[in-house]
Amino acid sequence: MADAGPLGADEAAFIAAARSDDTAPFALVAERHRRELQVHCYRMLANYEDARDLTQETFLRAWHKRASFKGNAALRTWLYRIATNACLDFLDKRNDRTPVPSEPADLDSELLYLQPYPDRMLPEDPQESAVARETIELAFIVAVQHLPPRQRAVFILRDVLGWPAATAADALELTVASVTSALQRARVTMRERLPDRRLDWRRPATHELSNDERTVVASYIGAHERNDLDGLVSLLRDDLRFVMLPEAGTSVATAKEAVEGWLTGGLFGPGYDDWRCITTTVNRMPAAALYLRAADGPEYRLFTLAVLRIVDGKIAELTGFDARDKPWLDLPPTL
After folding, report:
1. Which H, E and C letters describe the chain, residue by residue?
2. What is the pLDDT of residues 74-133, one digit of tens each?
3. RNA polymerase sigma-70 region domain spans which residues (predicted)?
């Protein structure tokens, strides 16, 4: 993300397209950065649909500001700057992007606007685009949302993308001292929110699922398809963290509470006892797409996406998402 030295091919092509006032070659050059910019907007907003909209807004702003790009910095840096400020403008206008306090008060807060990120839309080259698995997982995305917007931007630019302090300060129209102070405060919050995670987010990290993860998600699917409550319970850590989005008030912090809630809701009872599931991944995490068939129904319909965080062969976190009518998840609507 450092500023460019000699004018690169990307920058030269972008300047030529801007000078010609021809949107087609301009869009072609900018499009190469869509996926990584969309991930950046997702980290800022925790919502896939908003990230997609703000990436498009970034390209519109870039077109209108095309004359200001002189090639003194890398094109990628310039586009990230526009995307970051577009997200900040969005957050300034929205009062529904603050985590909702859970009950009881000592539980983490819920992000009712949180959406999963389809792996197929991640950049194809994670090293080039700095999409290490741990910086796209749900726990990281949720933790980042507890930072004030500008502090969030500083943290992502500095500690995730690895920008120098001066470059981040210039992008956000802040002083270097302000950026340094904001980063220090952000790191404290991130340590509190992710106490068991590494803190060097710029270090390369694997994005492949482990054998444990593959085995557990297969067992989770098998338990659902057999209506096997004991089998399901055996997969859960006692301190399971469960939330079902976008429903408010579903967050629980023990396996016992989660299972009691599932049974009260009718899991494995009439109308919720004919499941088919498929394995998938979102946010570089193992997930199960759950399909439910109504009594005498002709087909299984996509119902819920269960995203799992697996620790030592057990499910430590289970985040459920309403998956109905979500074509962007790229899952078949029926089985």
Report:
1. CCCCCCCCHHHHHHHHHHHHCCHHHHHHHHHCCHHHHHHHHHHHHCCHHHHHHHHHHHHHHHHHCHHHCCCCCCHHHHHHHHHHHHHHHHHHHCCCCCCECCCCCCCCCECCCCCCCEHHHCCCCHHHHCCCHHHCCHHHHHHHHCCCHHHHHHHHHHHHCCCCHHHHHHHHCCCHHHHHHHHHHHHHHHHHHCCCCCCCCCCCCCCCCCHHHHHHHHHHHHHHHHCCHHHHHCCEEEEEEEEEECCCCCCECCHHHHHHHHHHCCCCCCCCCCEEEEEEEECCEEEEEEEECCCCCCCCEEEEEEEEEEECCEEEEEEEEECCCCHHHCCCCEC
2. 899 999 999 999 999 999 999 888 786 655 444 456 788 999 999 999 887 655 544 678
3. 31-95
